[in-house]
Amino acid sequence: MVTANPLGRDSLARTREWRKVTQKTLREEIIPADQPAVMKGLVKDWPVVRAAVESPEALSEYIRARDRGRPVRVMVGRPEIRGVFFFRDDLTGLNFERAFRPVHEILASILSYRDQPNSPSLYTGAMELDDTLPQMAQECPLSILDKPAKPRMWLGNAVTAATHYDNQDGINCMVAGRKRFTFFPPDQLENLYIGPLELGPGGQPTSLVKVSAPDFERFPRFERALAAAQTCDVEPGDAIFIPNLWWHNVEALEPVNVSVNFWWFDAVADWGAEPFAALVHGLLALSELPESRRNAWRMMFDRYVFRTGGDPVPYLPPERRGMLGKQTPALQDHMRVQLIRSLTKGLPQALGEPIRRLLWEASVRQRGTNQ
């Protein structure tokens, strides 16, 4: 049974707001706190924000004039989903379809639906501006960043991105419309009831709970997640820092919504691997082992990967630590070879050998790029 939120939105903690944020503020105060942060008015002077504030038509003209016309992927939902891109009830798939259309056409459709109470839902996300609207990318600098980060645009009508996390730290900049964020700390994983890892509506692991109408009989621990949650609304010109692994539900509150996001990852160099891939590999390699073997591997992971006891090999000199020492491009290549061998194990030789060769050659080329 779907029940009303017993806590009520007003009882949720409010995400902290910051004003006049500088690169120093971001780097020395906001990021180390590992908490979401609203940065009021950070991008209010972007030309696209000024156009959006003027009128939806001015925004449309701004986008149309800069659109290179390349089709981008758009998620299309029937009116009955009411803007919530989600799993099908039986978890056999998702409740929307995908299509490809130029950006200005997607925005034109969104504008045409403004006054229709039962309109289709349209949503496109993570669209690289450098490829589609390069002039807009140049006109949307984020000077507080000291890391390279490509601008990506989100565009939709009154849609909801269900609770998910991002692999990287990000700053989401509101261009048009308003959005409501509901955040859950990483330690709420158990209480969020994550759906099939490979089936998230946006490609990321996603909660099965609809934040706007949670079913507490089916998901009773979600009340604990709400007790730890925080929320905020952002408007044109505002930006919000979203730490990686913080779960967030994003609800667009108006018929036309546009935002630009910048992602970066402080922890590793560009040639590092994705943590989620390590989880997938772990599921493939370890999850079906007997409990005693899983426990043995857990001890090894705790010692060598998570380093719960500190330095796992203090008795080895730095130059003899290999994979347990400072990671270099050459060492990363060696580690990739181990992964390639593992992941291609069992494939027919005619298939596995070319894969290993191609991946190794790509790794060598990447090493040359990074030197």
Quick tags:
single chain; 371 residues; alpha+beta; Jelly Rolls; 2 domains; six-stranded mixed sheet; 32% helix; globular; disordered N terminus
What does it look like?
This protein is an alpha+beta fold and 371 residues long. It folds into 2 domains: 9-264, Cupin (Jelly Rolls); 275-370, no CATH class. Helices cover 32% and strands 21% of the residues. The protein is built from 11 helices and 15 strands. The protein has helices at 23-33, 47-54, 56-66, 103-112, 129-132, 134-138, 222-227, 275-286, 291-305, 329-343, 349-370, and strands spanning 13-14, 17-19, 37-40, 72-77, 84-85, 97-101, 121-128, 151-156, 160-164, 169-176, 179-184, 230-234, 239-242, 247-252, 257-264. The strands form 2 sheets. It has a 9-stranded mixed sheet with strand order 2-3-13-10-15-8-7-4-6. β2, α1 (23-33) and β3 form a beta-alpha-beta unit. Residues 1-7 have low confidence and may be disordered.
What is the element layout, followed by pairings?
Layout (H helix, E strand, L loop, with lengths): L12 E2 L2 E3 L3 H11 L3 E4 L6 H8 L1 H11 L5 E6 L6 E2 L11 E5 L1 H10 L8 E8 H4 L1 H5 L12 E6 L3 E5 L4 E8 L2 E6 L37 H6 L2 E5 L4 E4 L4 E6 L4 E8 L10 H12 L4 H15 L23 H15 L5 H22 L1
Parallel strand pairs: 1-12, 2-3, 5-9
Antiparallel strand pairs: 3-13, 4-6, 4-7, 7-8, 8-15, 9-14, 10-13, 10-15, 11-12, 11-14
